[in-house]
Design brief:
The chain is α+β, with helices and mostly antiparallel strands. Helices cover about 35% and strands about 20% of the residues. It is built from eight helices and eight strands. The protein has a five-stranded mixed β-barrel. It is elongated. The N and C termini lie far apart (about 50 Å).
């Protein structure tokens, strides 16, 4: 069986033998791939540049239908994202991306848009100031590409047939319902009765506007709003909290980025 060509980010790696290793790759055309890299630990490895976590390469791979491990035949190093090796906040953000992907998608399920977003986010993070904008874009794409985009343009819990929301300084984000509704005592009581295990979160109208701009125009839309760093961080925290709710647990790297201040 001839190898197929793709590109991938190395997500994890393990020693397999004295000369080989197993790797978890997130590839553009094949999604998550668990692969055996024979000879990758030899002094004169056939894999260009070595296989390090959070590097990108052009790859050749043989996906074997009766084996959990594909066979990695080529690794031509293309990108190393230097800021990940020189800044601790950027490094932690890269680890967060690598940690989230295996939780969010399944093996052999391609997500080209998510792959492109991961690469773009790793490129964008050149300094600590870039971390929250990059992760905001990544998290939005992850939620959208996996079918969990939050509903922000209408009421997810209409009491009548009308789904419109009156303009207000703030709304409630209901994680069980996947979107926003009115921020008033009656609605909060109804949400608590509907889902006692998942509290709703107050979200500013400015945060909703920022996310709608992100959906429409990417980070350029966020910049056009003149959003400051705190606003971007609040939006990223909201998406991270929602993702944690969807996953049902908190990935180990999430507190490295957001501390223990995510809404619960």
């Amino acid at each position: 069986m001839p190898p197929v060509l793709d590109e991938a980010i190395a997500i994890r790696q393990w020693e397999f033998s004295e000369t080989s290793q197993t790797v978890l790759l997130f590839s553009r055309a094949h999604g998550l791939l668990r692969a055996l890299a024979k000879g990758s630990r030899r002094p004169k490895s056939p894999f260009s540049g070595g296989i390090d976590v959070l590097t990108r390469a052009n790859i050749g791979v043989i996906v074997r239908p009766h084996s959990e491990l594909a066979l990695l035949t080529e690794w031509d190093l293309a990108e190393t994202f230097p800021a990940l090796r020189s800044s601790l906040p950027v490094h932690n953000a890269g680890l967060f991306i690598a940690d989230i992907l295996p939780h969010a998608v399944t093996d052999h399920d391609p997500h080209a848009a998510l792959y492109d977003a991961a690469v773009a986010s790793l490129r964008l993070m050149r300094s600590p100031a870039d971390v929250h904008p990059a992760l905001l874009a990544f998290l939005w794409t992850l939620l959208s590409d996996t079918g969990y985009a939050p509903v922000l343009d209408r009421d997810v819990r209409p009491s009548t047939g009308d789904t419109s929301l009156a303009p207000a300084p703030s709304y409630r984000f209901a994680p069980d319902l996947g979107g926003i509704t009115a921020d008033d005592p009656t609605t909060r009581e109804a949400l608590d009765a509907h889902s006692p295990s998942a509290r709703s979160w107050r979200v500013r109208a400015a945060t909703v506007d920022l996310l709608l701009a992100l959906d429409a125009r990417g980070l350029a839309g966020v910049a056009a709003l003149g959003a400051d760093a705190r606003a971007v961080e609040r939006a990223a925290r909201l998406l991270a909290s929602y993702l944690r709710h969807i996953l049902g647990h908190e990935p180990a790297t999430m507190p490295l980025i957001f501390g223990r201040q995510l809404p619960r």
